[in-house]
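Late entry, evening session. Most of the bench is empty. Finally got around to the prediction I had been postponing all week. Sequence below, unchanged from the version circulated by S.P.
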Amino acid sequence: MRRLLTCLTPLLLSLPIPLSANPVEVIDDNGNTVALSAPAQRIISLAPSMTELLFSLGAGEQIKGVVAYSNHPPAARELPVVAQHDRLDLESILALQPDLVVAWRSGNPRAALQQLRDLGITVYVAEPVIMDDIARQLERLGELTGHAETGQQLASDFRAQLQEITSDTAPGTEAVRVFYQVWHQPVISVGGAELINDMIRSCGGVNIFADLPPGPTVDIESVLLRNPELIIASGSSNDERPEWLDRWRRWPDLPATIGDHLYHIPPDLVQRHSLRALQGLRQICQYIQQAADDDSSSGL
């Protein structure tokens, strides 16, 4: 670390100073004040979802480097990759002279983020847990990037669509028990403090592993014991239904199997905290409503 500081100090001293000072200040999801003397013009995004939000705001040309798998919109694929989600290339990041790094709290190494702060780089940390948090990110990132008006409008539109989708949730029905499966070997689900949990809840369902911390590894016996009426699998492909989803048919007495409520949903629509989460939410609501209707008519 000392050698890195020695090598990079001249570079840090050469960072450009904005000609016009329009200070901006927001609170990030760590509760820290993030202040800039002017809207950021050289941004590093360390989460694919944050890359998407920045492009949605019109700040795409201000992004100078991204984390791996920043593949939407297509223009994001042309940007230099300066990090994996769990490993940052500090020298590459600093060489791009960022005035703002947008990070993901549960996806980036905290020690590396602190090193960036120690080197004088401003870091904004995001951790959306409920759908409305995406709207808040749009507002905050809009302020930090000089696109405040766009951020406010996008946030307003997002909240309106969120209300429209969830208002169709059937009132008075018993919550459908939902198992969301991220992966099969090991079996990974979602816990309570995660965006997908909020999606399920907003659609009138209950996540069977809501009592667990984020990204829990569970066993098949636990799934069977909690008796889901609906299983949604994401997998690694946005296009292909994972073959392991149909392995649940081995348990023909499982309510989800009885009702044939075994669904695939593209992971980018639910596992990324971007505007596309509304598409994922709509699909989840449709699946839950279908399961509720079928269970009601069959007497399950």
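Two things to note before I forget:
The two ends are 61 Å apart (CA to CA).
The first helix runs from residue 2 to 13.
Will write this up properly tomorrow.
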